[in-house]
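Lab manual, section 2.4: Encoding a predicted structure.

Procedure: take the sequence of the chain (314 residues), apply the prediction step described in section 2.3, and record the output as structure tokens. A sample record is shown.
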Amino acid sequence: MFVLTQFIGLAVLHADPFHLEQEINGTIQKVANPAFSLIQPPEAKTQKDFLRLLQSLIFAFVIAISIFFLLTKFKIEFILKAWFFIVVFIALFITLYSFEKLAPFTINYNWAFAIPIIIALPLAFIKIFKRGFLIHNFTELLIYPGIATIFVPILNIYTIIFLLILISIYDMWAVWHSGIMQKMAKYQINKLNIFGGFFIPHTDKKTKQKIKLLKEKFKNKKISDKKLKAKNIKVNIAMLGGGDVVFPIIAAGVVFTSTTLSWSGLGSALLIIAGATLGLTSLFMFSKKKKFYPAMPFITIGIFIGMVFSWLVF
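Recorded output:
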């Protein structure tokens, strides 16, 4: 799912949903897409612009984390769910709209705007306000490509390298030192019934049989959480945070869409994805069950290896 999301991300970036092609004075030019006027990322032209946007991005990240913890402290779950819902809906809309742009046929502009809304709204609602394992992971495949398209235009190779290092350091501190990541994950799962990332449950055959019998016993009946806990059913869960998925897409996207790098393009982006996948795979191979690990340091090293190979090859 991690690899598939990376490829979807490249497809969405190639579609470039924030721009439309129009004929101006006899030549085809890119113009801003009015459908995305409210979320259109700013254009950066100079290194100063990229540095300024990086500072704004880091500041926004700090503010967002602070607001999240403030809302959790006062147990305002509805606002948190509404926040998640809006982000999920926007990301799904961007990705679904991008698929339309990649279609080999022309879609009416009004329909092209309406269809993603019609699909994204119920998917976002089910994901946030209802429990659905399949819908959760399916939407995760589409959410991070949509988010990445917003950040790729405001970063260049220097700022994304700095950001990856910074996020990796934060990830190590948040998992191994402060335990913030564990607290955030447990709060999302236990209190909000949602999780920002891939979420894969696993049980042995004996436990599966126990769950099957329980479902048959309480068929057409509502079972309380208290009764469910009393059954002492334990389910192993594999989790991969959303940041661990979206940052490789952003890194590959910056190189994929760059107009200044001599080694930019699809080949370099694929090598970066391969490096990120290698980094994540190495973590899975050496990690132990029932422990939390910061994935970003491993993924970042893989991304940097991919960048070096891209620079050497292309």
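Check your result against the sample. The two ends are 28 Å apart (CA to CA).
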